């Protein structure tokens, strides 16, 4: 029984490690996300950044249509 609970705990720790690593990588990519940012704020900032990038793509596409590129 103890061995089974140890394996569950080990899997949970490795999953948490992977999640934390991905969050650290996300903090490096998304501008305006300070080091001490909590997960909710980081995800909200990421969503705003994605919207900003989508808007940039839209504007650049329209400009390319206007300029005939």
Describe this structure in words.
With 69 residues, this protein is an all-alpha fold. The chain has two helices and no strands. The longest helix is centred in the last third of the chain and has 29 residues. The chain has one domain. Keywords: Transcription, Transcription regulation. InterPro entries: HLH_DNA-bd_sf (IPR036638). Belongs to the bHLH protein family.
Which characteristics define this entry?
69 residues, mainly alpha, 83% helix, 0% strand, elongated, HLH_DNA-bd_sf, transcription, protein dimerization activity
Straight-line N-to-C gap: 67 Å
Give the biggest beta sheet.
none
**What's the rounded overall pLDDT mean?**
88
Count of strand segments: 0
Briefly note the structural class of the backbone: mainly alpha
What is the alpha-carbon Rg in Å?
20 Å
Output the number of helix runs: 2
Helix content bin:
over 70%
Please write the string of helix (H) and strand (E) elements.
HH
Low-confidence residue ranges: none
Tell me the domain tally: 1
Shape: elongated
Taken as a percent bin, the fraction of beta residues is under 5%
Briefly summarize what is shown.
The protein is mainly α. Helix content is 83%, strand content 0%.
